[in-house]
Design goal:
This protein is of the alpha/beta class. The chain has 3 domains: about 55-245, P-loop containing nucleotide triphosphate hydrolases (Rossmann fold); about 285-390 and about 475-500, no CATH class; about 395-465. About 60% of the residues lie in helices and about 5% in strands. It has a 7-stranded mixed sheet with strand order 3-2-4-1-5-6-7. Helix 10 (about 275-315) packs antiparallel against helix 12 (about 335-355). The two termini are about 25 Å apart. Bound molecules: guanosine-5'-diphosphate and magnesium ion. Guanosine-5'-diphosphate (GDP) binds near residues 93, 194 and 222. Magnesium ion binds near residues 71, 72, 92, 93 and 134.
Length: about 550
């Protein structure tokens, strides 16, 4: 289904509004996508009261050209009476003259009503389907005349470009023809032919061919007294033949397609400045590289403060458990924040270089600048507490456990053995009247018992892991976790942004595709020998 131009501009405006709010397009682009020229010849007729052609509006035809070429004279000749001021001293006609059938109800727009306008009506049924307009001189020194012409141009179906032998090379009018060429259908009048030369006509014809009119329709007219043998009738009948509902519809459709094409190319250029999906993949890798560099430098910068904090933690291990707010030492200082901010800034510059809109990045990555210190603080503190709760490594802790067992088991075994010896000797000495154990035994067995307790006790004492080292290790581990955490936060944000980006592009491409949908049923190209074909610029 083909959408109307106004529907497409509405869709575009809606899209632009939300894309601007989320930062995907800047204010300039929003401006560009919020104001579209919806003026068409159709706007001039809100009510049409033509008896037979109720549904069809008349064809709007306007004379345009340089000063004094004879536009007003041509309209007067057509009307058969002086309705437009002709031959006024330069700068000439400042007003717009409308000439139409009395049955046509024109609804002038407020801006047009303000400008000086001169309306003449007729009752000639043959010209019922045409509204003629005489435009002020476009090349006039009066700036307001030029503005008036520009104000009226969008409402005109067919422009009759009038030239004279002196002014057929007029630059200002020619520039307007080039600029507006594609938007209208064109007929050409070589007026004041009573003074014209054939080579001037050929020259003019060739110029028109050069700018894209393959076979321009040019009428030679002469409006001076006593010179009747010209092609004025041809001009009149050509216009009349064009003033059918079908042609008007075709012109409207062509205008609408042109505007859709213009909208399409604007949207395509917006899409070009949007960055590709591949660019998103690239920036993800870039972030990982940049972050690993930053981590290296942060880690180096943290060695000394880490040691300080580890010492502090070890010395205040007890305070740590009861009151954390006593811990004044924080790892994340101004230096670290600057280093981190620089990394993010560098990354955003890179995003910009990849042609991806940076505002959403700035908006979504900004909170991380405040969040990073908190992440670092929580992670390092947590790891330090865990480390202090279980100091040393697994092997160390196992050996210590064994030693603690030995500290009990060894003296116990020594005591049992000595006890057994004392008992056995006491028993046998009673039976066979032997001597009791001597002083030697007493000394040795005491020594054995003392040693079996002292040795594990000393080793245990010496092997106790250092709290400082444990705190340092813990802090280091926590720092590593925090870095991974921050990296993950950015990657998550990037993934979220990539999805948003994809969705924005999808919506934009949808509108672009709708602009491309051709209204094939009435398309000009399908109609062979269409009278309009010669009137359109290629
Ligand atoms: N010789 C000659 N003079 C003409 C012809 N058409 C118009 N003029 C004169 O050219 C002058 C300017 O005409 P006008 O219609 O006011 O030109 P406009 O400025 O294009 O509207 C007037 O004096 C006309 O009488 C023509 O075909 N031949
Ligand atoms: Mg005039």
């Amino acid at each position: 289904m083909a959408y109307d131009y106004s529907d497409l501009t509405e869709k575009t405006k809606c899209w632009a509004k939300q894309a601007h709010t989320t930062g995907w397009i800047n204010t300039d682009t929003l401006e560009q996508l919020s104001h579209f020229d919806n003026r068409t010849p159709d706007n001039l007729f809100s009510i049409i009261t033509l008896a037979e052609h109720k549904a069809t509006r008349p064809l709007i035809v306007a004379f345009m050209g340089g000063t004094g070429v004879g536009k007003s004279t041509l309209l007067n000749r057509l009307a058969g009476k002086p309705i437009a001021k002709a031959g006024v001293v330069r700068p000439t006609s400042r007003e717009v003259t409308l000439y139409h059938h009395q049955a046509v109800a024109m609804q002038l727009l407020p801006e047009q009503q303000l400008a000086s306008i001169n309306v003449s009506q007729h009752d000639n049924a043959a010209n019922q389907q045409v509204v003629w307009i005489d435009m002020p001189d476009f090349d006039s020194t009066e700036q307001s005349n030029k503005q008036l012409v520009f104000q009226w141009l969008p409402y005109i179906d067919v422009l009759i470009y009038v030239v004279s032998p002196e002014r057929y090379k007029d630059e200002k009018a020619w520039r307007l023809l080039l600029a507006e060429g594609a938007r209208h259908a064109w007929l050409f009048v070589f007026n004041q032919w009573d003074r014209g030369q054939l080579d001037q006509y050929d020259d003019f014809n060739q110029q028109l061919q050069k700018v894209g009119f393959v076979e321009p329709v040019i009428f030679k007219t002469a409006c001076s007294e006593g010179f009747e043998a010209d092609e004025f009738i041809g001009l009149e009948s050509t216009i009349r033949s064009l003033a059918t509902g079908h042609t008007v519809e075709q012109l409207e459709q062509r205008g609408s397609q042109l505007r859709k094409d213009e909208l399409k190319s604007i949207l395509q250029s917006v899409a070009l400045n949007f960055g590709s999906e591949a660019a998103f993949e690239q920036i993800k890798e870039q972030w990982q590289d940049q972050w690993s560099d930053a981590v290296k430098s942060l880690q180096q910068g943290f060695i000394w403060p880490l040691k300080q904090i580890a010492d502090y933690y070890a010395d205040h291990a007890a305070d740590l458990i009861t009151n954390t707010s006593n811990v004044k030492h924080t790892l994340w200082d101004a230096w670290a924040q600057t280093r981190f901010d620089d990394t993010l800034d560098e990354f955003i510059i890179h995003v910009d270089q990849q042609g991806i809109p940076v505002l959403p990045f700035k908006q979504q990555i900004e909170p991380l600048r405040d969040k990073a210190p908190k992440i670092i603080q929580t992670q390092t503190e947590l790891a330090a507490r865990i480390a202090l709760a279980n100091p040393g490594n697994v092997l160390q802790r196992f050996i210590l456990k064994c030693l603690r067992v030995c500290e009990i088991v060894l003296p116990l075994s020594a005591m049992s053995w000595v006890g057994y010896k004392v008992f056995m000797n006491f028993y046998t000495s009673n039976m066979i009247d032997n001597h009791y154990l001597g002083v030697d035994f007493a000394v040795h067995s005491s020594l054995l018992m003392v040693l079996s307790w002292l040795i594990p006790f000393f080793i245990l004492k010496k092997m106790q892991p250092s709290l400082k080292k444990s705190a340092f290790k813990g802090l280091n581990k926590g720092l590593g976790n925090a870095f991974t955490f921050v990296e993950g936060e950015v990657i998550d944000t990037l993934q979220g942004l990539a999805l948003q980006h994809k969705e924005q592009l999808r919506q934009l491409s949808e509108i672009i595709n709708l602009c491309s949908a051709k209204e094939t049923d009435k398309a000009l190209a399908d109609v062979k020998d269409n009278p309009l074909k010669r009137l359109l610029m290629n």
